[in-house]
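[09:14] KT: can someone run the structure on this one? pasting the chain below
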Amino acid sequence: MQSATPQVREAQQASRTRPIRDVHEVRANALPTVTDALRAVESLFLRGGQRTARRNAWTSVLEDRRRARDRVEAQHVLEAVAGRTSRAT
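[09:31] RB: done, structure tokens below
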């Protein structure tokens, strides 16, 4: 059997003579957000498919609101352009 290299023997010796440090584990748990709490309640009462359907419906609502804002903004731009008259003619 081969003997250990001097570096290996040194490391083994050092590991035997090192004092064991008292390590305290620190856990940083963030407080749950309202969203996290609602999702936890949702998971208790709704099945997976129902959760997915509700989330898809909410995503659709948000998308409809975004489209409505875009439509109103486009209407304001068109009204502003239509209010201007050409002075070249």
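[09:33] KT: thanks! The chain has a mean pLDDT of 79.
[09:34] RB: yep, looked fine to me
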